[in-house]
Fold this sequence. Notes:
This protein is an alpha/beta fold. The protein contains 15 helices and 12 strands.
Amino acid sequence: xxxxxxxxxxxxxxxxxxxxxxxxxxxxxxxxxxxxxxxxxxxxxxxxxxxxxxxxxxxxxxxxxxxxxxxxxxxxxxxxxxxxxxxxxxxxxxxxxxxxxxxxxxxxxxxxxxxxxxxxxxxxxxxxxxxxxxxxxxxxxxxxxxxxxxxxxxxxxxxxxxxxxxxxxxxxxxxxxxxxxxxxxxxxxxxxxxxxxxxxxxxxxxxxxxxxxxxxxxxxxxxxxxxxxxxxxxxxxxxxxxxxxxxxxxxxxxxxxxxxxxxxxxxxxxxxxxxxxxxxxxxxxxxxxxxxxxxxxxxxxxxxxxxxxxxxxxxxxxxxxxxxxxxxxxxxxxxxxxxxxxxxxxxxxxxxxxxxxxxxxxxxxxxxxxxxxxxxxxxxxxxxxxx
Length: 387
């Protein structure tokens, strides 16, 4: 047994120092067992499985809705947040000349949805520059809103950014958009499980997040939320039996049928989300998050002392279990990442944002201070520091 009992609840390779929950997540053994049992149920009697799938998915949506303080019928399960952004971006009826207001911190795959539409139908993507270091939420709201025009149709923004691990003031931004008749779509890929998430408090028109990252669900489990008044707005991204004027409504609404009923599929990852929620409750995850946050906060300061470079956050309210630290100018991030893994067995991403090199740590309940110390040992050996 390891010094951290939560570590033993995961299947992670004990020879690897895993500091990258943020990329693809890691799923506990107990949740994986539920996932595999759902797959077994499917293969034992496929027809009976699909006969019951409507009710089973409804139960899984209800559990997720309770966790997010919203009705389960406001949610559809999707494979990942990129899929969720595609549903909204390609289904809301954007036209030539419409503007999408976003930031220069967005995740490339999701931003590509609107870049694709920019080239295909002539919308315009407006990237508001959001400055670092992070100092003031109101300043961020004004920095972003300064780029709003009378052609802005959609605010598309990350709740927590991927490259810079920065929590943006989503509640204020969504409220501003709502006041001015602009729709809001939030990429919350890194939020559920890492931050408390309440759909009512967020106030977004659309919100998507990956359950397989910080909630620790199996891979391929995410959700798209749509406010009730928008359930009839989005065209289906994939047309199948869920669409049609004379069809039977499988799930009770166009929103659910269009985006949840996509034909034959393995729904095990979706059906296992309630087990991941239960795992968080059973292991007092607010306390786990607090412990991880404290380690991340200490690491941010340690990196500042180590590199001589100031943190990019004014305080620790801008991050939770994931944060970045700047690296010396000229650092080869691809080589550093490879060397940390090859020579020290440390799995951690090194990224470039706005031509600046960063290293991004993301700590989950299975991590300890020994893991952070191992990272610093590797950096001390590999990194060329200023001076």
